Amino acid sequence: MDRREFFAAGAGLLLSAVRQTQDTSAGPSGRLYDPSWVTSVQPVTARDNDAAIQAIEKRIKCTCGCGLDVYTCRTTDFTCPVSPKMHAQVLALAASGNSAEQIIAAFVQEHGIEILMAPPRRGFNLIGYYTPYVLILAAGVALLYAMSRWVRRGALSPTTGDVGTVGASAAELEGLQEALRRTEA
Amino acid sequence: MTLLGGLALWVAFILGAWGALTGFLGGARGRADLIASSRHAVYALCGVLLVAVVCLEVALFRHDFNVEYVAAYTSRNLPIFYTWSALYAGQKGSLLFWATVLSLFGALAQLLTAPRHRVYLPYVGAITSLVCTFFLSVMVFDFISHANPFDRLPYTPVDGNGLNPQLQNPGMVFHPPMLYLGYISITIPFAFAMSALLSKRLEADWLVAIRKWTLLSWLFLSIGICLGMWWAYVELGWGGYWAWDPVENASFLPWLTMTAFLHSVMIQEKRGMLKKWNLALIIGSWLLSIFGTFITRSGVIASVHSFTQSQVGWFFAGFLVLAATASFWIYATRLPLLEADAQLESMVSREASFLFNNLLLVGIAFTVLFGTLLPILTELFSGTKVTVKAPWFNSVNIPLGLLLLLFTGIGPLIAWRRSSLPNLKRQFAVPAAGGVLTTLAVLAAGMRDFYPIIAIGLAGFVFTTIVQEFWRGVAARHRQYGEAWLLALGRLFARNRRRYGGYVVHLGILILFIAFAGYAFKTETEATLRPGESVSLKSPYGWTYRFTHLGISQYPALNRQVTAATVDVTRDGKWIGRLETEKRQHVDAEGNPTFQPSTEVGIKSDMREDLYIVLAGVVNGSEQAVYRFTINPLVWWVWYGGMIVALGGLVVMWPGGGSVSVRREQAGYGVKLVAKQ
Fold first, then answer.
1. What is the DSSP string of B117-143?
2. The model's pTM
3. Does ipTM come in above 0.90?
4. Which residues of A touch B424 (CB under 8 A)?
């Protein structure tokens, strides 16, 4: 390779590197190198950020199978084909003057109660909401009762369960008990 | 290699069955030859399963796409890091991983158990072998379960499917093994508990033998859960870290019952009480770990995290029913041997507060289990399908969680056996003042949300309790031994790691509660921006962030095509950094798209709040980008709270520490003072 060939090869390499750099960045028109690499979405509207709309969507489950609410699903990966349609439905219902509860009711009518992220607090569902509290409360009452029995039983048999005993006078015992209390505190 | 792997599974199955049989027989008849044979089978089982794991890893690294599992979870362009973790990315591989780790823990239990506790080992070996044999049976009876990781395809694909992009995250390399280690290691304390029941050696010895194991599995579960939260936050792009998904709940359930056990076991060690309860907690924790596996693998409850639905779930359901029946039957027959050595002396004692703490922990576990199963129960009893997601779990669990936080503060303040009124006043005065002052401070700062105010107020109470405990301990050493303050603190830890390590865990928990309270103040907005355009978002702290879209770049990477959007961020007009968020289209070796596009979140984190930016996509192939901007207060504290919990767990676990008398007391010895007649 002579000097001319060497510089020609170098210039060729430089040009190809520049071309590659241009190819993989946004073009002068603001178009992407390859739009198929990225999700194409609609521009955000003011209604998309409406807190009232978001609050409604957070109560409705997306039916795509993700288990998320409509708002979270449509703003998470932005690839779900279902949640944007449900969002559009919420917007349409709101635009036609429906209140939040009416919009929710419309979804329940269409999909059943399963569409709600949590069952409504009425009828049979109340069992679902209050069973844990009732059972924990009942267990608490039972525990208090059992504890009071244990305490009574313990008072009747003060030496029960001793692994070992230490002989001491009442005064010594009082002093030791006080020392024990101080240590354990 | 796969032939060897398949053969290893069968050999392991036979070894497991032999180890179980000889262990049970040897334990029951006291035959040394059978016991030795069982122990050798446990070691051999571990060795053979390690061979199977090596065979599968070799197939993964050699891209042997004729192996169905390799073709399903890897591809030629998958980074090496994730090729390794593909071992447990799918159902079949994770079963092998589970069985291998269990056999390893079983062998370690045989090796590391102190001589004075070796009497339990025949049954321990039998039980770990039996559980391992069950996992192996799922794999080797492939004609029913279709779960043999060495299954071959009738053809060899040119390339594999690749790993789900959301699993291509460092968090997913460490999170599943940590959770598995937590789930699996519960089998060892369970095996010791069952061994104590079977051999009727129900004195405190078995508790001492399992202390490190219970802490270890609790620690693994804690770290695994925290890593899972971190992965969900940085990878999934929804801006949260916990969604009460059934699979998340499945990991939380044994954590709750193990936490209850770690508290109640202290009562048995110190006072010889709660023997029945502690055994029930250990058995329950282990059954919950199997239940979690059933949920993850059966598809009976819809979850985004589930493995593919298969017959494997029904293997687990059957095993769960059999194991629960056998365990509780043995437990019931031994109840007369489990009478308490001592009685509760007062309703105002640390024992009593621990009992309420246990009630709440088990109550929350029940609530989570109930909520997870509620869709099935409702359909069964009312014929209506319902969805039970975060709103239900939050509404039911938040009050219980706050009550638990209160007991986290109360427990350490009450003395063992009984507390007098002056003692209570002395103990509670400063922490109560701390709680009240914290509540007033957040009210003065303008916070008006009920639950966050209560959470932060209670955290103030618990924090002051912990500080008071440390202060009194350090001051006592400083006074008594003339030690410098720092030296006194160090020795305080060194001499009673269990107690002060426990306080460190409490500190981590209260930090987590504060961080969870911060989630209530999450702020977000969506925006469409051209290069150079900006959008503003007000932080809950009062300042204003301005996000400016700089532009979009596209470039190919190893196994993906990346579209990266860059955003400049200012806070109240001052530039604070630049964030990048990506859309990734994963491709195979030929450049063909493999999965749905995935999101890489841009996060800027500090102690006060996280800026969390997600690129939703672009408008008509242009640089006009659609973003979601989120401000997440106090998320930083979730990760550091989790680390502090883990650190506290390590301090508690660290070998040594404590005087001989303390260790004796922990081992169940005790002396009670009685008046000389």
1. GGGGHHHHHHHHHHHHHHHHHHHH-HH
2. 0.88
3. no
4. none
